[in-house]
Amino acid sequence: MFGRFQELVDRNTHRMDAQHTDQQRAGLFVGLYKKAFPATARYISRHGGSLDDARDIFQDALLLYYEKYIAGTKTPPEDESAYLLGICRNLWLKRFQAGLRLNNLEAAADDLAEEQPERTSEVRLRNLLRRAGSKCLDLLSAFYYHGRTMTEIAAVFGFSSPHSAAAQKHKCLEKVKQTVKQKSLQYEDILE
Amino acid sequence: MKTSLNETRHIDRCLRGTPDNSEQFLFQARRLLDPAFDASVKLQQRCYRLVRDHARAQVRAEIAAADQQVFSFPEHRGLRDRLYRLFK
């Protein structure tokens, strides 16, 4: 029923009921850990990293893999382990190069000063939205991030038809939009 | 409210759907000519980013939970031992 996602879950764990997508993802990630993490750990170990480094890098790689191949539209590679190892190698090299750059503390401080305010307001908004109605956010996430079809969303969220799910998706988007607009104006008042 | 909902739906179709060429052209033209509409489009793009960040944070938490499982559940002890040996 869940197409590409289900195929990967079946490959890595076992078939589960369509209602349990969170558990399915958990099973998928544990399956990929068992299958692909040892090779990554070996690579990081040989290049002077620690087990914690390997765990951090692998978690980032899993997120990238998920967004590109499971939630995304691309066809997953046949050999997931080799592909994940490739992502980890790139991430490790990037981290190593960033580490060299971070020796320049002044530059790092400038970067932080530029990024911090924007990120804080977005995180605060996200928390507010979650408190205002996480079901709407979850529904929107299912469509825009996890790449679910309206038929799948209708089944998981209990709508009578894909059409009802689509109507609710638009209402949720409108609700989020109005909340963000209102809260952004309030923040501007506070900042002024 | 209804007008606003229709606008949200229209922007959604133009940004995330498959609008035909003429609809896309009119959408871009209206953005240029109507600042309020353009602000609404930007607001909606910000909402998409917030939704993505919300979902991404959830997936990150799920991945961290999988990591915890591998490094604490008894059934993964064999795998853990292999991993610890690599870093001795």
Number of domains of chain A: 2
Task: Report the major sheet of chain A.
Answer: none
Number of domains of chain B: 1
The percent of residues in helical segments of chain A reads over 70%
Q: Topology as H/E string of chain B?
A: HHHH
Which pair of chains forms the biggest interface, and how many residues does each contribute?
A: A-B, 41 and 40 residues
The helix count of chain A comes to 7
The N- to C-terminal Cα distance of chain B equals 63 Å
% residues in beta strands of chain B: under 5%
Would you mind describing this structure in some detail?
The complex is a heterodimer of chains A (192) and B (88). Chain A has 192 residues and is mainly alpha-helical. Chain A has seven helices and no strands. In chain A, helix 1 (3-12) packs across helix 2 and helix 5 (105-144) runs antiparallel to helix 7. The longest helix of chain A is centred in the middle third of the chain and has 40 residues, at 105-144. Chain B has one domain (2-86). In chain B, helix 1 (2-16) packs across helix 3. With 88 residues, chain B is mostly helical. The longest helix of chain B is centred in the middle third of the chain and has 36 residues, at 35-70. Chains A and B meet through helix 2, helix 3, helix 5 and helix 7 of A and helix 1, helix 3 and helix 4 of B.
Question: How are the secondary structure elements laid out?
Answer:
The complex is a heterodimer of chains A (192) and B (88).
Chain A (H helix, E strand, L loop, with lengths): L2 H10 L8 H26 L4 H20 L9 H22 L3 H40 L5 H8 L4 H30 L1
Helix pairs in contact in A: 1-2, 2-3, 2-4, 3-4, 5-7, 6-7
Chain B lengths: L1 H15 L4 H13 L1 H36 L6 H10 L2
Helix pairs in contact in B: 1-3, 2-3
